């Protein structure tokens, strides 16, 4: 799975939230200043070429939907991130963020408990 650019990720965040949308609906969810219709349309078509997005025809318009779940992308992205910046060590990553955010042991344990409860 390819890594998304910042603009592509912004569009995917909206599509993950809406589950399916026309380009104008995607634009409505984006922050100000709103990008041009053609810009968003181009990015959506690139996402489709990359295999992240599919579409359904509605007359002359297309309604787009994600083909990749947010959790699947997050998992792949995080593996690459940890590999690239922390030599593949999740322990190093947690240690780094614990120091950077001044997390106490209790806060870290609470986060770990929450993660354990979320795990299927």
TrEMBL record:
Entries under InterPro entries matching the protein: BlaI_family, POU_dom, WH-like_DNA-bd_sf, WH_DNA-bd_sf
UniProt-listed GO biological process terms: negative regulation of DNA-templated transcription
Xref: PROSITE patterns: POU_3 (PS51179)
Signal sequence residues: none
Gene Ontology molecular-function annotations: DNA binding; DNA-binding transcription factor activity
Domain of life: Bacteria
Domain POU-specific, chain residue ranges per copy: 100-120
Keywords for this protein: DNA-binding, Transcription, Transcription regulation
Protein family (similarity comment): Belongs to the BlaI transcriptional regulatory family.
Name of this protein: Putative transcriptional regulator
């Amino acid at each position: 799975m390819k890594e998304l650019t910042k603009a592509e990720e912004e569009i995917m965040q909206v599509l993950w939230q809406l589950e399916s949308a026309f380009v104008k609906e995607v634009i409505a969810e984006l922050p100000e200043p709103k990008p041009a219709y053609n810009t968003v349309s181009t990015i959506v078509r690139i996402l489709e070429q990359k295999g992240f997005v599919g579409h359904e025809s509605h007359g002359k318009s297309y309604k787009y939907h994600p083909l990749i779940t947010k959790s699947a992308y997050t998992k792949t992205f995080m593996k690459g991130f940890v590999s690239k910046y922390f030599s593949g060590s999740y322990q190093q990553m947690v240690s780094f963020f614990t120091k950077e955010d001044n997390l106490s042991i209790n806060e870290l344990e609470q986060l770990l408990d929450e993660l354990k409860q979320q795990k299927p």
